[in-house]
Automatic annotation (TrEMBL), chain A:
Annotated SUPFAM superfamilies: SpoIIaa-like
Name this protein carries in UniProt: STAS domain-containing protein
Organism whose genome encodes this protein: Herbidospora galbida
Gene Ontology MF: a single term: anti-sigma factor antagonist activity
PROSITE patterns: STAS
Residues covered by the STAS domain: 15-110
Gene3D superfamilies per the UniProt record, alphabetical: STAS domain
Superkingdom of the organism of origin: Bacteria
TrEMBL record, chain B:
Protein name per Swiss-Prot or TrEMBL: PAS domain-containing protein
Superkingdom assignment: Bacteria
Residue ranges occupied by any PAS domain in the UniProt entry: 9-44
UniProt KW Hydrolase keyword: yes
Pfam families per UniProt: GAF, PAS_8, SpoIIE
Keywords (A to Z) from UniProt: Hydrolase
Domain WH2, chain residue ranges per copy: 414-432
InterPro entries per UniProt: Bact_Sigma-Reg, GAF, GAF-like_dom_sf, PAS, PAS-like_dom_sf, PPM-type-like_dom_sf, PPM-type_phosphatase-like_dom, WH2_dom
Any GO MF annotation of the entry: phosphatase activity
């Protein structure tokens, strides 16, 4: 299987808002990058963390765990974290794990 | 002035030959010596003719020993009828060449040692390579004494003309070999000449080895700890261990020690992994009256990465509780977590059999775990074998599939939150109760099945739709056959590609 490289893009569209665009395979081998970045992402002044998963081709349990960890970090900060884009595959995954009950998801995706 | 234009006189020729740095012996057509120059007389004080090999062709060069020196001799035609023999003392030159050859041999030896020692991560094979490499160039017999594994005995391997032998000795016997106890403790080696070879005990050498003339005992240094010792023995009458050899042995011992200690560490780690992976290994399924049970668990191909899928069928007095789950992550941490969940379930089952209540309890237990990211997905199915009713709870896991006897496939309408993930402790669960009529089958599976990448492009997921279609073709088949078929179809889809853990567990009501 050709694995799609995992990429993280970080933008600050406006003060207090950070937009995280993830793409590629977000799994056991790649999730460490985002996990390591979490304390930096959720730092002083953050109010809104937007996560775009449109380009993510695969998430395994480690990837999911990293998102949960990020969610908890934002909640404690406190800042809001919301998902601004995802594929039907990821929407289904969130449904199976019932994370759709926890996460702030876009209404159009599912 | 005239003499310059004429051929040189015999006296002049004689003077030239006499002054030559090389030894020259001149013979006439009959082979009688007519001239021996000063250099030749100096080289060969006695009878020079004994060195002249008349069977050699003109132009040929040969070497001949004279006492402790080596002479190189060349036969030539000189003038028309005379034969000349040129002599050169090459003792020093040859000694330098020998030294160079010995140096090359040592380098070659170390290259070969590096190649053989790096080829294995097995302690015994590394020790064997060490002993075999050392026999020949370094010694007549070489014994590797491994670091004591237990408290009482320690293993050894020995290589000699008698072949490879192995055994063990009481650790205390190391004291019998001069320098061995010190080497095993990691002390630097002492020069061979300080060790009395006659003190070597009988067990140190192969049967019929004969008297030992020289002994060299060197520690095998590992990663900060001694990885054993190398004992080298040479027979009486043979050459001793010179400084060059002792240096070579130390360099060789450093390489061998590094290889052996790496192998020891690797084996300890893989033993630990094997113990941990044991917690993930599927258990033998019990026989339950009225039910057929079949399971399959394929671990991910990355062997170093223990995966997190597991299943169990736990019998209770009211009927079996079936579990199938997937813990977050890979490696030893995943194995430990899976073990914790399986053992927690066993214990909780003594008090509680309701799947929904069990989910809440496991979730709380995971949230109080010290291990970060103790996330688990789980399906629990409490089966009443008498009437075929099954109480199901699903947490963060794909919902089980129902295959009716007529080939209709339904997804069980149950879902719930991933366990151990949400800090507030609140999980939502929608449980279900399904009835398994005779001939019906319930299939529990892990996401490794549906998320298997493969197909024509190699990048397509198998998906739940394909799984349902495949399952529909299995109506009427025994549970074992269903699991085998689904596993086969899934493997075909993967077509040898990389896969995650894949678990399947089928419960069929036989009557």
């Amino acid at each position: 299987m050709e694995t799609a490289p995992f990429l993280i893009e970080i933008e600050n569209p406006e003060p207090g808002t950070t937009r995280l665009t993830l793409s590629g395979d977000f799994d056991y081998t790649t999730s460490g990058d985002l996990a390591a970045m979490t304390p930096t992402l959720v730092s002083h002044g953050l109010m809104m963390l937007e996560v775009d998963l449109t380009g993510v081709t695969f998430i395994d349990s480690s990837g999911l765990a990293t998102l949960i960890h990020l969610y908890h970090a934002a909640e404690e900060h406190p800042a809001e974290m919301r998902f601004v884009g995802m594929t039907p595959y990821i929407a289904h995954l969130f449904e199976v794990t019932a994370l759709d009950q926890v996460f702030n998801l876009p209404t159009s995706a599912a | 002035m005239d003499s310059v234009t004429h051929a040189p006189s015999t006296e002049v020729l004689r003077a030239i030959v006499e002054a030559a740095a090389d030894g020259v012996v001149l013979c006439d057509a009959d082979g009688s010596v007519v001239l021996v120059n000063g250099a030749a007389r100096e080289m060969v004080p006695g009878d020079v003719t004994s060195l002249l090999d008349r069977t050699r062709e003109p132009g040929e060069t040969y070497e001949t020993a004279l006492g402790d020196r080596l002479l190189r001799v060349r036969r030539e035609i000189f003038g028309i009828v005379h034969q000349a023999w040129y002599l050169r003392d090459v003792t020093k030159e040859t000694a330098r060449a020998d030294a160079l050859r010995a140096e090359r041999e040592r380098t070659q030896f170390l290259v070969e040692a590096g190649r053989r020692l790096s080829a294995s991560l097995n302690t015994r094979r590394c020790a064997r390579a060490t002993a075999e490499l050392a026999t020949g160039l370094l010694a007549d017999a070489a014994m590797v004494v491994l670091p004591p594994g237990g408290l009482r005995r320690t293993a050894w391997l020995r290589s000699s003309e008698a072949g490879l032998e192995e055994g063990d000795i009481p650790v205390a016997h190391a004291d019998q070999v001069p320098g061995l106890a010190e080497a095993l403790a990691g002390f630097p080696p002492v020069p061979s000449r300080w060790l009395d070879p006659h003190q070597a005990p009988e067990w140190l050498l192969p049967a019929g080895f004969g008297p030992v003339g020289h002994l060299l005992v060197t520690p095998l240094p590992g990663n900060g700890v001694p990885a054993g010792a190398l004992v080298l023995a040479r027979r009486e009458g043979g050459a001793g261990f010179d400084d060059e050899t002792e240096t070579l042995v130390r360099v060789f011992a450093a390489r061998a020690g590094a290889a052996i200690s790496a192998a020891v560490l690797y084996q300890e780690q893989s033993a630990t992994n094997a113990i941990l992976a044991g917690d993930l290994r599927p258990p033998p399924l019990p026989t339950v009256d009225g039910l057929e049970l079949a399971g399959s668990l394929r671990a991910a191909q990355q062997t170093a990465l223990i995966g997190g899928d597991f299943y169990d069928v736990l019998p209770t007095s009211d009927g079996p509780l079936v579990t199938l789950g997937d813990v977050c992550g890979k490696g030893p941490r995943a194995a430990v977590l899976a073990g914790q969940v399986r053992h927690s379930l066993r214990a909780l089952l003594l008090l509680e059999r309701d799947p929904e209540q069990l989910m809440h309890l496991i979730n709380k237990a995971l949230l109080s775990s010290y291990t970060p990211r103790s996330h688990v997905t789980l399906v629990l199915a409490a089966i009443h074998p008498g009437d075929g009713m099954i109480d199901l709870a699903v947490a963060g896991h794909p919902a089980p599939l129902l295959l009716r006897a007529d080939g209709v496939v339904d997804e069980v309408d149950a879902r719930g939150t991933l366990l151990g993930a949400i800090k507030s402790g609140a999980i939502t669960l929608r449980t279900a109760t399904v009835e398994l009529a005779p001939g019906d089958l319930l299939l529990l599976y892990s996401d490794g099945i549906t998320e298997a990448f493969g197909g024509p492009t190699g990048r397509e997921m198998y998906g739940s739709a394909r799984l349902k279609t495949a399952l529909a073709t299995c109506a009427g088949m025994p549970a074992t056959a269903v699991v085998e078929r689904l596993e086969q179809l899934n493997s075909d889809w993967l077509a040898g590609g990389v896969f995650d853990d894949r678990a399947l567990l089928a419960i069929r009501r036989s009557r």
